[in-house]
Amino acid sequence: MKNFLTRRGFLGRAAAGSAALTWLSSRKAPMALAAESAKPALLGGTPAHSGGWSSWPTWRESWEPAIIKVLRSGKWYRGDGGHVAEFEAGYAKLIGAKRCVATASGTTSLLVSLHVMDIDAGDEVIVSPYTFIATYNAILINKALPVFADTDPSTLTMDPASIESRITERTRAILPVHIYGMPCDMDPINAIARKRKLSVIEDACQAWLAEYKGRKCGTLGDLAAFSFQNSKHIPSGEGGAVTGNSDELLDRCQAFHNVGRAFGTFKGERPYFTRGSNYRMQQFQAVLLLQQFEKLMHETARRQENADYLSAQLKEIPGIQPARLPENSRAVWHLYPLRYDAQQFSGLPRDKFIRALSAEGISCSGGYHEQYFDGILDEAINSRGFKRLFSAQRLKAYRENFHELKGNRQVCTTTVGLGQNLLLAERRDMDHIIEAVRKIQTHSAALIRAAA
Ligand SMILES: Cc1ncc(COP(=O)(O)O)c(C=O)c1O
Fold first, then answer.
1. Maximum Cα–Cα distance for the chain, whole Å?
2. CA 448 / ligand 1 centre spacing (Å)
3. How far apart are CA 443 and CA 39, in angstroms?
């Protein structure tokens, strides 16, 4: 919850105003050489960037008539009108999936996917620990155990090499998270799943239009979950989608998300022959989303162009490491993360670096922390249900494994994230970000003295 507030609060503020560490050479861009001698804003200098950043979400007046039309029709529920089905067809086409089921949120998309892939009480799911807390929750709500694979510090996503040692006879699925819109390395993950007969559910809640080896995230496993919550690149307040390429699985998703009503080939003698819940999307959400496809494509291209530029420049600064993407992949940058090595900044701790960068007018945050130590998992494994479902020995070993997540700890303690709306700005604004980092590095010793 703390992280949730931090991340979304961070977007709001922005609107207003090792193993894998391979540090690269220190060539400097000419523009930065001039600027880096200026005093950091935290020491009384002029901020590298002024005027804030664009607010989020943004909308167009041209969207209003369609929304008002739904209002005046009184057909607000998906069963009474076609906008939700239209959105499902359009979104599936956009990402190259065979089918899509629209839902109330990313969390409910994960719940639908887990149910349809037959994750049941007492099962185990291998999952990335570096994610928004909803990914943990969706597994826990099914009374299954989220077993954390480690995070690769160079990619910030699930380290495929850490999966197999965590598989037990209870493991049913792997749930990789394309965090910040950076695709996981899906080939080795899918190969392990095939070999060990496990399902693969992608958490693509931050990965609209991200690509892995020529295919979009959301088409790479058995099922995938997307979120359209307000902070997302294609927002509708709340909202979500399940995507996939199997008619049989998607028929089951339709049925489960709609109180267990028969759908397509998934039917019985009676209309309510299977369990289900109400995770339906509303017509208003669908109409908002349908109008954003072109905006999403356009803005994604802008974010990618600015991120490519930032990565090329920032990797030249000693102590700053942009994330590595799998070969032939495109990220969509929900946050733009970089890894920070304090040693190259005279020992300036990460939180002080974040403060100094924020003072330069560059909104940033520390990303996710080690949430498995926050109590949510202790509460779950000490509950009556989990104690009935898993042996004391298993739960003890499970809890101890949190300390083995060394890659994830590195990522949690050294990442600095820039918000997606910063990447929608102009090229000169990217130069301000680079200039600010260089300025802080040049004056890092003075910043430490000032903080002491
Ligand atoms: C990685 C990830 N998974 C799951 C979710 C849950 O989505 P929602 O907030 O729409 O329920 C989110 C949303 O923030 C997310 O970022």
1. 77
2. 37
3. 7
> Quick one: which atom of ligand 1 is closest to the CA of 107?
11
Ligand 1 in reach of 181 Cβ (< 6 A)? no
The domain spanning residue 190 has which CATH number?
3.40.640.10
Say if residue 258 is in the same domain as residue 361.
no
Query: CB neighbours of 447 closer than 8 A, spacing ≥ 6?
Result: 40, 42, 43, 348, 352, 356, 440
Which CATH number belongs to the domain containing residue 428 in this structure?
3.90.1150.10
Q: How many CB atoms within 10 Å of residue 289?
A: 24
Boundary-marking domain end, from 247, 263, 292: 292
Mutate to test the pocket of ligand 1, among 56, 114, 205, 233 (most ligand atoms within 8 A of CB): 205
| Among 363, 94, 107, 69, CA closest to 234 | 94
Same domain, 243 and 333: no
- Secondary structure of residue 189 in the 3-state scheme: helix
236 lines ligand 1 (CB under 6 A): no
Per-residue pLDDT of the chain (452 residues; tens, 9 = 90+): 333 334 444 443 333 333 333 333 333 444 444 455 689 999 999 999 999 999 999 999 999 999 999 999 999 999 988 999 999 999 999 999 999 999 999 999 999 999 999 999 999 999 999 999 999 999 999 999 999 999 999 999 999 999 999 999 999 999 999 999 999 999 999 999 999 999 999 999 999 999 999 999 999 999 999 999 999 999 999 999 999 999 999 999 999 999 999 999 999 999 899 999 999 999 999 999 999 999 999 999 999 999 999 999 999 999 999 999 999 999 999 999 999 999 999 999 999 999 999 999 999 999 999 999 999 999 999 999 999 999 999 999 999 999 999 999 999 999 999 999 999 999 999 999 999 999 999 999 999 998 66
Question: Residue 404 domain-assigned?
Answer: no
**Parent domain of 34:** 2-56+294-368+410-451
Is 425 inside any structural domain? Answer: yes
Shared domain check, 109 and 26: no
Q: Does 260 lie in the same domain as 170?
A: yes
Ligand 1 atom nearest 231 alpha carbon: 14
Q: Same structural domain for residues 327 and 223?
A: no
**pTM greater than the 0.90 cutoff:** yes
